Amino acid sequence: MPYAITITAGKVSLPATLDDSPSAQAVWNALPIEARANRWGEEIYFEIGVHLDEAGDARAEMQVGELAYWPPGSAFCIFFGPTPVSRGQAPRAASNVNPLGIVDGDAAAFTAVHSGEKVRLEAR
Q1: Per-residue pLDDT at 55
Q2: Which CATH number, 1.10.287.600, 3.40.109.10, 2.40.100.20, 3.30.200.20, labels domain 3-123?
Q3: What torsion do the CA atoms of 98, 70, 79, 123 make, to the nearest 10 degrees?
Q4: Close Cβ partners of 78 (under 8 Å, ≥ 6 residues apart)
């Protein structure tokens, strides 16, 4: 069963859907989560206090709008364009991430968010 959340980062607020994976369930169980955004190219990531291992479906190649969990940093990731390690215009994580879901809307809106701004994940 998918989980409906709202991501608010700076002045941007978008709905998103987490899938039914064990990683997504762990994030869902930790909601609400507040942190400070870190920008890495066209990715926002932030530590969420959830500690998970790399999942069997973990990968580095992502799509615009995808959400993921980065095990080395215990971080939630929002991909909305190329990162410093991208090979073209598609987002690419620094290392394998556990896919969690997708932004329900135009993820490019997150380009307005800067490092240090507050981010909140909550159930909707």
Answers
A1: 97
A2: 2.40.100.20
A3: 80
A4: 7, 9, 43, 44, 45, 67, 103, 107, 110
Q: Torsions phi, psi of 11, nearest 5?
A: -95, 5
Amino acid symbol at 50:
V
Other Cβ atoms within 10 Å of 117 Cβ, number: 18
The C-alpha atoms of residue 30 and residue 57 are separated, in whole angstroms, by 21
Please give the model's pTM, rounded to 2 decimal places: 0.97
List C-alpha distances in Å: 74 to 26, 45, 104, 105: 12, 10, 23, 25
Quick: pLDDT tens for 25-60.
999 999 999 999 999 999 999 999 999 999 999 999
Checking if the pLDDT of 2 tops 90, the result is no
